[in-house]
Amino acid sequence: MKKYTPIMLSAQCTLLFLLISYQQHLSTSSENAASKMYIVYMGGRQHSDLSLVVDSHHNVLATVLGTSKELAADSIIYNYKYGFSGFAARLTDSQAKTMAEMPGVVDVIPKMVHKLHTTRSWDYLGLSFSHATNNPYPESNMGDGIIVGVIDTGIWPESKSFSDQGLGPIPSRWKGACVDGDQFNSSHCNRKLIGARWHNKGVEGEINTTVAMEYFSPRDAVGHGTHTASTAVGSLVHDVSFKGLALGTARGGAPRARLAVYKACWNLPGKAGSCTNVDVLKAVDEAIHDGVDVLSLSLGGPASPYTVSIIDIMLLQAVAKGITVVCSAGNSGPRPHTVEHVVPWIISVAASTMDRSFPSPIMLGNNRTIMGQSQFTGYKKTGFRDLGCPQDFSDAPTCNCEDIVLDSRMKGKVVLCFISAASVNNPNVNSGLRNMRLSGVAGVIIAFYPTQAITCYDWHCIVVDYDIGTEIFSYTRSSRKPMVKLSPTKTLIGKPLSTKIADFSSRGPSVLSPGILKPDVAAPGVSVLAAFVPQEENFYQSFALDSGTSMACPHVSGIVALLKVLHPSWSPAAIRSALATTASTIDPSGEPIFTVEEPQRVVNPFHYGNGIVNPNRAANPGLIYDMGDSDYVDYLCYIGYLDSTDCPTKKPSMLNLNLPSITIPNLKGSVTVTRTVTSVGPVDSTYVASIEHPLGVKVEVKPPKLAFNSTVKKLSFTVTLSSNHKVIGGYYFGRLSWSDGTHMVTSPISVKTEIIPSYTDRF
């Protein structure tokens, strides 16, 4: 047996120690490499003492990590302690699985990246200063005293839209702060912009300011947050336009409301406006603490349509505090089942056009003048130029925009190209348009859906639909020398323009909540002019046109601020009901509302919910359908989110939620639903029901009359729906209205008959 000297033993121990240490290092490195950011949701706060809430976070994390409470505390990224109890931390998959089994832990959710849903509109909705006696502005003092929180990409505080001129002191109940950072400090806040926070731990390490401009502060580098905030609560700014288009006075829906900004969306390389659930939850948590009255979130995705998102769950905590939450419905239309924020406590907003457009005349060589849409105002007229497809002036094989290559033969010509629905998001389309511009074309006519955004403000491109594009193409093929003259873009307001639902606006029905109508309402979301991050020409006054349900959402947020002043005791559900039951189902001119996508068709509730918001009627709805915490618990029980021990023995029906709509996704024979309305109009009033029956469906209301007086403020009624359908079909739509001769309280009815369970004939 070989003997070891003390020196040899010491050396071998040292080597063994180093080997073990190295293996531990490799193991730790592997664990760190495999770790991901998770949100640990622990439900409602169990303690009023916030230090005890945070201590419970440290305890559970220390147990899972096998470390001390002190080390666990250092590992926490965010503590969520105001709206609900929870935290964000890095965990391996195995640790996350262990965490999910810990007592007191409701759910463990991985970090997800959400995306943003990216003047005239207020006059279009009826909020006009020239008719101030007929709208809520005078009595609501334009929202003064209400605090609107906006979770987005931040704010450009120098914009005149955030001037505090004429405003009184900051509400004494405000507990927020203006947090310093890059090119931002507390002096940038005022009596208008009363709070500004920023949260970026969910994207730390991903921000690269050398590749994508960004500020580690509440300052906006993208423009989206500035745009949405000014749409909701922007102060009056006169003589505003976008390069001469849409000239007028820019203002938010509630110009005297106060603004609190929470920057949780960031300009990442190649992903402008990225928002992690980790950061958004922290923003919501802070907003609840700070004391906002309204929360506006123009963001969503990518949560599964089959599960409720942790953000929507957190927003329930805000609603429980009396905060009305407004969210964009999503930009994944026109496909059905794409609507987001489908829970009953959130107001989900679809996007419509309005009665304003930017026509650009196109005169063909045969003296035929047709109209396209453009936002280019760089020069007046091109004069007559040669007109043709890319293949007429280059080696491009087709007339498709994505096939265009750089070719000097296109210089000085006007080029017509087509974008198909299938290639709208094809990167080759942008490449083709860029090649045309670099080739020196005098202009381009693009045939595709008119509401799709084409960012060519600094060169002459005109958008037309397929019918007009085909007409122009036919002219180029029938003329020996096709010519065209492009004229400057103008602003057209009013007739003959009609309201349409934007093709990008996400559609219902909801997969998760088929018995809940979503979206709730629609608002202008196409070519909305609002404040933006400054362009080089004017540091203090920069405005831009933008489109998306992101732009529709803050319209409703601004209206909610007005309603909060007029009806301070109303719950978030009451406010949603007022907006929904008074929404317009026809264009202001009296014409039907259509969809934009081809073929155009009359809209149904899955396109725009109850209709286009009408702030004037919403201020005095007559009746409201109210809801409270117990209703929301019933909903969570129905979808299986809550443990059975927290739910009633008998599973609640989603159909009986006290919603301002009736949606039956699987009618078998007949079904009866119950609703309860509260009178908020004249003390003595009698409402009579009227029914517009869905095709093949009998609807019966009992009682058909509701009489209210000084002692009877709340009444219930039942609606029985019976189907006569004998074959499988789709949804049919109708309407239930209650009227006292002054108010018209309307609820859409959406019914689909189930003939054979779980059967589809769509192949």
Automatic annotation (TrEMBL):
MF (Gene Ontology): serine-type endopeptidase activity
Secretion signal, residue range per the UniProt entry: 1-29
Keywords, sorted A to Z: Hydrolase, Protease, Serine protease, Signal
Transferase keyword on record: no
Residue ranges of domain Inhibitor I9 in the record: 38-117
Taxonomic superkingdom: Eukaryota
InterPro entries for the chain: Peptidase_S8/S53_dom (IPR000209), Peptidase_S8/S53_dom_sf (IPR036852), Peptidase_S8_Ser-AS (IPR023828), Peptidase_S8_subtilisin-rel (IPR015500), Peptidases_S8_3 (IPR034197), S8pro/Inhibitor_I9 (IPR010259), S8pro/Inhibitor_I9_sf (IPR037045), SBT (IPR045051)
PROSITE patterns, sorted: SUBTILASE, SUBTILASE_SER
Domain Peptidase S8/S53: 143-595
Domain Subtilisin-like protease fibronectin type-III: 656-751
List of catalytic residues: 152 (charge relay system), 224 (charge relay system), 550 (charge relay system)
Cross-referenced Gene3D superfamilies: 2.60.40.2310, 3.50.30.30, Peptidase S8 propeptide/proteinase inhibitor I9 (3.30.70.80), Peptidase S8/S53 domain (3.40.50.200)
Keyword hit for Hydrolase: yes
Pfam family, one: fn3_6
GO biological process, one term: proteolysis
Family in the record: Belongs to the peptidase S8 family.
Protein name: Subtilisin-like protein protease SBT3.8 isoform X2
Organism: Cinnamomum micranthum f. kanehirae
Taxonomic path: Eukaryota, Viridiplantae, Streptophyta, Embryophyta, Tracheophyta
